Fold each of these.
Amino acid sequence: MRTNLWSVLLFFTISLQAQDKSPYQLFDKNGNKVTYDKLIYASLKTQVVLFGEYHNNSISHWLQLELTKDVAVSKKVVLGAEMIEADNQKQLNQYLKGEINQKQLDSTARLWQNYATDYKPLVDFAKENKFDFIATNIPRRYASMVSKKGFEALATLTEEEKTWIAPQPIPYDASLPGYVEMLKMMGEHTSPNMPKAQATKDATMAYFITKNLKPNTVFIHYNGTFHSDNFDGINWYLKTYNPAIKIVTISTVEQKDITKLEKENYNKADFILVIDEDVTKTY
């Protein structure tokens, strides 16, 4: 009888664990579990949402689309992404207006290899609902120039090229945690211009977000989590360009155990999206 009772208890325990199994859990910056509804509520009360993603994480991309859809139920949205560079805004607008098709966009814009699976759903949502979608990132070739020669290299650009980046001179604080960490990761032989190149990306994304803010509208921006973790990067530049701006940040991390936030991931953002490290990658 005792053996049968133990078997029944074990069965129900396993069943409950299976029912509770989830690929992700949301936390606040202090490590407290929070609901998805709380994230939606915060997003509706802000001007900008910086959704920091892992570029190849399927849950990141799924939740980006769901969040965007759910915010758009109650409020107008503008979408924007690191993954499309500013000099491709014309082609992106043509696609959004139906003037060119997907094949033509593929051939005229520099789209990431995972665009079709991970970003096209967001662009198509904007297209279907007539929302603006802003290509916020600096053209990569200009960031590469900065990584080799510093900010001074940007002075050689034409007037048209300068419209695709943040206005010069670009503010820069080398002590920001993200830039300090980049130098550490790259090793002692890394050029100090490397974080400056990162800064041109952060500044340009912040500039185009600020430029495209609208009253009573939420700008939802999709970027690699490194660009907005620790409330610096894009967040710092947004505050520099507009000190009164309201921002909600989301950081993505992967953990083996998603039931509690690891100490190293505290304070990365207003909301930390913890994803099971076994979740399928898109590439």
Amino acid sequence: MFALVDCNNFYVSCERVFAPHLEGKPVVVLSNNDGCIVARSNEAKALGIKMGEPAFKRQDFLEQHRVAVFSSNYQLYGDMSERVMRTLAEIVPEIEIYSIDEAFLDLRSYRKNFNLEELARHIQRRVKQWTGIPVSVGVAPTKTLAKVANHLAKKSPGKNGVCILSDPEEITDVLRTLPVEEVWGIGMQYQKFLNKHGITTALELRNAPDAWVKKHLTVVGLRLVKELRGVSCLPLEMVQAPRKGICTSRTFGNLVEDYESLREAIATFASNCAAKLRQQHSCTKMVSVFIYTNPFLIDEPQYSNCKMVLLPEATNVTPELVRYALWGLKLIYKPGYKYKKAGVLMTHIVPEDQVQTHLFYQVDRKRYTALMKSVDRIQQRMGKGTIKYAVEGTRHPWKLRQERLSPQYTTRWSDILTIHQC
């Protein structure tokens, strides 16, 4: 059996942990630059607030119904996610972190007659007690069915956040009423295709012939169908595979015109990418820099460009990568434009112990490696951004617009709550 643990309205729940007076009240969280609504409490959903709605269009409505509005606090959400995952790993050691608010647990090590609902309730209570985050738990014989069970745990009021699908007849009844688009891995295009061929429910997909499924949905689709039949085809991925591409990009809070501000942004993005490379013990051979203006400002001149820089030798050293990224920016920057977004993408990624050295590229690699280890150690201990390169600047006029940002309660010393005894 597999369990899928999913945090309820995760971004909203993180805000409520440190503002408990918001329990039972409508709360929403906005996307980058306070643009669209990306997370809603159940109370906000009940008011008819839609996911992805532009916040400025609903400003009067939000004020009228006293909806608490927050900017995305990614530092807080990332740290709270790590706390939830650590808590789950103490209960069930075999865990796959699927996303920032979801994790699969392998329950096959538990004995056959173990009370699965009792375990699921224990997980709920432990995570809530240790982190303050409410979770839903779905348990089933496969990961795909566990997704279905979690969906029912969230949507069925009588389940109280836990659903166990173990009986074959019960699974069949559930799949009979489940729309095919609710199945994990069935996107909009597959939904249209399946509906066109008369497959509208998960049960109809489960009963489709193997040959037809493999022909039209490939081997991946066939695995999914077998999972719906109770045959486990997707094992837990307990070791996360290294990313093949690492990108840091931002839509600026204010339009950027001068080269110095754009230079600061690109240097910061390259530095972030370098840290991510070292985190997964990888190096990159190619750095791409891209910039573009706002296409929605039709009265303004438009420009976009990208430059790929092939490095003589793969590296994950921040000064090197910043230097190459800024060189790429210099080649594509044009004055007279108002830039809306920029980013750095690193590809051609290889393990750091498999770097092909260059005969004529002389770098004191040992010294740089020691330097980067010291920097990462300090950043990990004192917080991201403790050490910066001068070229990254301090003003950051391009930074995200976050007018409703909550404190970073768990990652910044100055934001830790002070408890006063009455």
Amino acid sequence: MRKHYLDNIRWFTVFVVVLYHVFYMYNAEGISGTVGKITGLEVQYYDLFQYIVYPWIMMLLFVVSGIASRLYLEKHSDKEFIKSRTTKLLVPSTIGLVAFQFIQGYINASISGVLLANQELPLMAKIIISILSGIGVLWYIQILWIFSVLLVLVRKIEKNRLSDAVAKIEKAPEAVVLVLLVFLGGLVWLSSLILNTPLIVVYRFGLYGLVFFLGYFLFSQERVISVLKKYFPLFSAVALILGTVFCILYFGKNYADKPVNRSPLFALYGWFTCLALFGIFSRFFDFENGFTRWVSKRSFGLYVFHYLGISAFALFIAKPGLVPPVAAYILTLLSGLASGFLLYEIISRLPFFKWAVLGIKKSGTDVQKNEVALGFRL
């Protein structure tokens, strides 16, 4: 049976990412790489939204991607899996940078001031900077491709021994599953302390690698989902308490870098929010209608292209003060949604570009086929 709640978790999280990037673009908390504060407010209390969602949004997407990998590999070989992952993930995050995403890179470099501060650089150097800066939100699919390769290696080593051991949880008492999920929070925190790149803070191989593999081995078990569904009020209450404390303690500090993003509170809040959302969506949102079907088919495009609309509007309209701050926030959000949906519809129909930028090899049906492996169509 199709797991509609996973589709709904995914597109919901992508929408949260879009909204997060709007607040992030105009943040007053000193987070770099953005236009920054455009209001006259002494304190932008609504920046709390960033603190509320940042610890769990990408963690949740990696869990979903882990589950999606399990579902895909149940019907396909390792070779087919790697081939589809390479097309869908590696090609857009490498060739796609040269084919299209350099536009995003130029805007990113302009916002950060890199190009302005280095006007003496030769043209080729500026082009290279723009191409590399175009990675933007594609860091997610870059890491996901690496995890996919590692997953195939793990499968060859464990030869279903680990999978069979985890599958025994289907017969475990609820209390055992509940305790396991709670104590895994400690492992999530420990994983957040390792394999973090020093400069580009989003590349967190330890944390995201763990939750990806937990998605593959653990969250793909129906017993686990049934426990999350039953005890979602408990997980929600814990997440609410942890989130409140997190916001009180860290508001005004850089939530995206150490020491905040490596604190136990950051990891535990993110983990329990993931547990709560899986429980809520599996219980109340395991359905499909016209809207959810439409948005699910297009959420990958929204993720890939939304930041172009947000950053372009911020650089050329909001930063010069051409619109009032309130209008800037609203129009930036609309610009992100429009660029995400429209660019996807256009580029998914263009020869070469649909392969280079979106990983679509042949017909439009490959959009859904390839997105299964990414977790954008389950």
Amino acid sequence: MPLVAGVDSSTQSVKVVVRDAETGAFVREARAGHPDGTEVHPDAWWAALEEVLEPALDGVDALAVAAQQHGMVVLDETDAIIRPALLWNDTRSAQDAEDLVVEGGGPVWWADTVGSVPVASFTVTKLRWLARSEPERAARVRRVMLPHDWLTWRLAGAPAVATTDRGDASGTGYWSPARGEYVPELLRLALGHVPEVPRVAAPHEVVGQTRNGRSLAPGTGDNMGAALGVGARPGDVVVSLGTSGTAFAVSDLPTADPTGQVAGFADATGRFLPLVCTLNAARVLSATAHMLGVDLDRLSDLAMQAAPGSGGLTLLPYLDGERTPNLPHATGSLVGLTRDGMTPANIARASIEGMLCGMADAVDALRAQGVQPRRILIVGGAAASPAVQQIATTVFDVPVAIPPPGEYVADGAARQAAWALSGSAEPPEWNPGGLDVLEPQPVPGVREAYARAFATVHGT
């Protein structure tokens, strides 16, 4: 049986999943850690990938890399890395994002031109930060890549022309999903000159070979990989609860939201992926568990002991600043503290309600762009928590589906590799397994309390 591998090079680690190319049946997996931080030298990703990749690839015919979006990898004329990559969660370019929005023609212009209004996460804003803060380094930039571009390029033997895919390219802020092309004047506006950028490959194209002769598919961004891995279709909204929180939907039409809440991305199949991203998701729960001196299983148990509404406590979970809403310098706020309400159970539940209320606001932003959700698919590390699953039914107003636990970003990359290997017009139909579907049981007052707390703290 032909085998394929998918790589998920995420913020925290690299995972490799090997699957049967025809059925998607699981064969094996491997993983290694990445350094923590908001800037990381790409060599650390390569070292982690080398550690796990070759042992995992026995018998594999093709592979693809999915990776964290937006990260800025800059190379000089000798293809040497100029500085550590700024990652998606590095918010130092917040002012640069505001400046670019004004200089480029305003939020409506940006949304119409590249589908999104740039915020600090976007690559284009990091290039402006580089030009402003490190002009000597900026002047040396000959190539700009994203994390998955760079890893694919290295696996292919560092060819003269690097490749990317439309999904990851759509998160740069200088590629138009609607027109399917780069916007060079935005690169010049940000960096001061136009560097080389990767060629955008077709979704199922073979873009190169590894040194051992395995076929390389284009790869994609992590959210696009997750959509492909979970088999999302129109009407599905995927809520991914990893390091960041994302809500995204597969669409046949591009979106352009001048408010900046919804990023008008492309997906990994030729369609579109309107997406809302928050900086704070699963790490809100791990931070709360650490504060309470418990593990995540005990945090879930505690949260289930509290009533909906968390005894009047509301957490605005902006522990690392926030991307949506665009509050890069915000901090978290626990509102409504009283002696009676300040219990471990209420604090545990408030952490989950706060995280999920933020994601419910994200789903509402997708609705405002024409997305009509029929169900919510919850994936990511926090999706396994029984409390997260139960509390989600009280926050969302459509059925909540819980796919089996899996590495859906890596699975999506593997499915793309199988697609490239097959030469078919459409990706293979893999069955990710049965879904646990929970009917909505909205609890009045929970989301309203979250909205009041936001207005009190942030004035809108």
